[in-house]
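Fig. S4 source data, part A: sequence.
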Amino acid sequence: METLRLHSPIPGIQPPITPAPSTTLAGYDKIPRKTRVNVQAYSLHRNHDVFPNPGSFLPDRWLKPMDSVELGNMRRWLWAFGSGGRMCVGSNLAPQEIKLVVAAIYSNFTSKIIDDDGIDPIDAYTVRPSNNRLVLKFERV
């Protein structure tokens, strides 16, 4: 979850439109219906109140008790797959698949990045390395 928080596959603007008759959002009352309100996962995932030290990779933050208010709040703010009617249909399957694949690979191999030149992400709807490449070297454990 921490990797999805820091490096969302779709970090940019999502296109929600307010419903009828009007909406209250973040202290703004009566936003007219059909007003476009843009939200960015990148910004949501760096909220200091929800994710202390938001720029740091801290996977242990997700290991809180399942019924904790803090974990529930983080899950509500995690927007790696969008939300509502436009939420990714694979949002429940993808994290499970990621865990299985990563566990299967790293039970048998180690990896390192080879030539990280141009790996900086580009500003696009989906994130990818600026040179469109990520070369990994795998070695059997």
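Fig. S4 source data, part B ends here. Residues 93-106 form the longest helix (14 residues).
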